[in-house]
């Protein structure tokens, strides 16, 4: 299984393709996934296009993550991506609604910290979400099979599994393997190789 996942991931990442080709989007942004995620992304686009690109990354994160059997509530053929972010982000993410991930189909749902998150398989927390709300969201899914993804400083060091970061003009991502383990998630070793690996911050360093 691991070998098959790695082979598939290598094939996906080595293709040079625009987000428009990847998702069938109708905009003409200069967004190119170059060689592999680890080499960064050429990003010269409006903020709305930034989130279309992040949505494309998230689809691939999901494809190379394994959840425990029967881990999420809801129909067995859906994979719920819960989005705690402003409306423009949610609109961009809806362009991956219905995309296939193995035998399941992505379903994008807007959520807030007061909502029931029991059906979420993935949880994206946007940068405009307050610190208090972010902490409540992470606490609600702690130790549950939910792939949490953020885009704020130290997100993956403060309870999140994955985090988008900008470095050297490119879009990269961090992974906290220990948090992923606590969330009962298994991620492809190839995906881990392409990420910046981080660890949980000690309480005294927060």
What does the secondary structure layout of this molecule look like, with pairings?
Blueprint: H1 2-14, E1 17-18, H2 19-23, E2 30-33, E3 41-44, H3 47-63, E4 65-66, E5 78-84, H4 87-93, E6 100-101, E7 104-110, E8 122-125, H5 131-141, E9 147-150, E10 162-167, E11 170-175, H6 177-182, E12 186-187, H7 189-194, E13 196-197
Parallel strand pairs: 5-7, 5-8, 8-9, 9-10, 11-13
Antiparallel strand pairs: 1-2, 2-3, 4-12, 6-7, 10-11
How does this structure look, described?
This protein has helices at residues 2-14, 19-23, 47-63, 87-93, 131-141, 177-182, 189-194, and strands spanning 17-18, 30-33, 41-44, 65-66, 78-84, 100-101, 104-110, 122-125, 147-150, 162-167, 170-175, 186-187, 196-197. The protein is α/β, with parallel strands linked by helices. It has a single domain, classed as Rossmann fold, CATH 3.40.50. The chain is globular, with a radius of gyration of 16 Å. The termini are far apart.
Multimeric organization: single chain
Please state the CA-atom Rg, rounded to the nearest Å: 16 Å
Instruction: Write down the CATH class.
Output: Alpha Beta
Q: How many beta strands in the DSSP annotation?
A: 13
- End-to-end distance, in Å? 38 Å
Mean pLDDT: 79
Extract low-pLDDT stretches.
9-45
CATH arch. level architecture: 3-Layer(aba) Sandwich
Question: If helices are DSSP runs of H or I spanning 4 or more residues, what is the number of helices?
Answer: 7
The largest pleated sheet is described as:
8 strands, mixed
Q: How many domains is the backbone divided into?
A: 1
Identify the strand order in the major beta sheet: 6-7-5-8-9-10-11-13
Q: Which structural class do the helices and strands define?
A: alpha/beta
């Amino acid at each position: 299984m691991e070998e098959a996942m790695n082979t598939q991931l290598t094939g996906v990442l080595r293709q040079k393709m625009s987000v428009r080709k990847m998702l069938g989007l109708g905009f003409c942004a200069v967004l190119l996934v170059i060689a592999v995620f680890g080499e960064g992304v050429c990003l010269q686009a409006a903020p709305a296009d930034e989130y279309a690109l992040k949505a494309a990354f998230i689809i691939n994160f999901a494809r190379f993550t394994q959840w425990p059997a029967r881990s999420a509530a809801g129909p067995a053929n859906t994979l719920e991506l819960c989005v705690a972010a402003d409306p423009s982000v949610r609109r961009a993410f809806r362009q991956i609604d219905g995309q296939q991930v193995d035998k399941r189909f992505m379903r994008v749902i807007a959520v807030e910290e007061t909502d029931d998150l029991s059906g979420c398989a993935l949880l994206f927390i946007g940068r405009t979400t307050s610190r208090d709300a972010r902490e409540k969201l992470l606490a609600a899914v702690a130790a549950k099979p939910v792939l949490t993804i953020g885009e704020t400083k130290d997100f993956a060091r403060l309870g999140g599994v994955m985090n988008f970061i900008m470095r050297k003009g490119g879009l990269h991502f961090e992974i906290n393997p220990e948090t992923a383990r606590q969330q009962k998630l298994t991620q492809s070793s190839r995906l881990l190789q392409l990420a910046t690996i981080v660890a949980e911050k000690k309480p005294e360093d927060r």
